Amino acid sequence: MITQLKDDQYETLLPLLNGLWPGQTPSEWQDELVGFVGDKDAAFFVAWNDDEAIGFSQVQLRRDYVEGSSSSPVGYLEGLYVDEQMRNQGIARKLVEVAEQWAFRRGCTEFGSEVELHNVESQQMHERLGFQEANRTVSYIKTIGGSQMMDCVVITGSSKGLGEGLVESFVEKGIPVIGISRTESATQSGVTSLLYDLSKSGVPLTATEHVWQEIEKIGAKRVTVIHNASVIDPIERVGNLDPDRLETAFRVNVMAPMLMTNSLFQHARGTDVQLTIVNVTSGAGSRPISGWSVYNSTKAAINMHTEVAGLELEQSQSSHRVIAYNPGVMDTGMQETIRSSSADAFADLGRFKELKEKGDLRSPRTVADALRDLLFAGDVTNGEIYLVTDLLEGK
User: Fold this and answer.
1) Exposure string (b/e) for 163-189, b if CB count within 10 Å is 16 or more?
2) Is residue 273 within 8 Å of residue 221, measured between CB atoms?
3) Which among 158, 127, 320, 128 is positioned nearest to 223, based on CA atoms?
4) Phi, psi dihedral angles at 39 (to 5 degrees)
5) Which of 76, 196, 295, 386 is catalytic?
6) Domain edges within the chain
């Protein structure tokens, strides 16, 4: 686990700082760390093994010229250390990734570092982490965010609503898209459209086979899969539910993403393909809504699937990631379905009509861009459920 230290937690760093830069006394380090209290342009991230701090990264925004850079500010790796007994487990890479993500969120598109000329081991580590040598001092620079984070993205339910917004968002950034939908969509450059109805038995696995063939054709190694396809029907009270529509909802909302993720992990086993799975969820997965027993249940199920899969990946120290994304309320066809429900079946009907009338529904493209920026920013936390409101805060 990696956490960002708060101002009152800097004492945790003392043994780690001494491991990286020996020679200073604890009081000298404490005096130095006081200078970082309240500094919004600096951050410390610590890697933990249970309750023991085993490594850290220090990142700072540099606004003066950074060797090899072409922008400002530049995120700068001021320090990186992992306890000798815990090395070669990918911890340093994760510490750098969270530092890059922090810098990217503050407007940086480049990330710098430097090492001493004689420190060949550190130079080799920087190059493994994607840095490019900028000068023989040795200074390093790398681009962060953007298309380097993925080679292609797979989107289910890609022909309308949030799915359509996601396709536009990624194509705009030059990311190849493999779209899966049950209805035809307009031909677009950079988009491979696959027609599959994920509510039909056996189709999710057939679709996955086709997707994997396309991934191999592209030669993609970093693949993001967004399980966006979803249905809200049936909206009805328990006792009045249509059995066929109930079964369809579970096939699309739960079975399809679980089956496809399971199959993709099997395909990726033994390869160097790194998967990031995003399950699109809803606030309905964590609170009961009268008339929504089916939708509530399917989203609660996909939330738990996300958390368990994330836990398992962390335990196995896998490079794959599984997260969930709550897009909030959007102006989509699903909202139209909600507003067309009967008041008898759906007690909160008036509130959803009011959201539309007041213009409080976000556009699918706004929500899509927020997810894209999260993924471009770098490493995401396994099992985490990300909320669009948090991602758009301050924007």
Assistant:
1) bbbbbbbbbebebbbbbbbbeebeeee
2) yes
3) 320
4) -80, 110
5) 295
6) 2-144, 148-392
Please give the Cα distance from 296 to 294 (Å, whole number).
Answer: 5
pLDDT tens digit sequence for 268-307: 999 999 999 999 999 989 989 888 899 999 999 999 999 9
Strands 321-326 and 274-280: parallel
Beta-strand ranges (E) seen in the chain are 2-4, 42-49, 52-62, 74-82, 110-114, 132-135, 139-143, 152-156, 177-181, 191-195, 222-227, 274-280, 321-326, 385-387
Distance CA 347, CA 326 (A): 22
Instruction: Give the model confidence (pLDDT) of 26-68 as tens digits.
Output: 888 888 899 899 899 999 999 999 989 999 999 999 988 787 7
Q: Which fold has domain 148-392?
A: Rossmann fold (3.40.50)
Measured CA to CA in angstroms, residue 42 lies from 14, 333, 377 at distances of 17, 44, 17
Q: Is 81 a catalytic residue?
A: no
Q: Look up residue 2 and give its two tokens.
A: 């990696």
Q: What CATH fold (topology level) applies to the domain 2-144?
A: Aminopeptidase (3.40.630)
Whole-angstrom distance, CA of residue 256 vs CA of residue 244: 16
Q: Phi-psi region for residue 122, left (φ > 0), alpha (ψ -120 to 50) or beta? A: alpha
Q: Are 131 and 140 in contact (CB under 8 A)?
A: yes
Residue type, 237: R
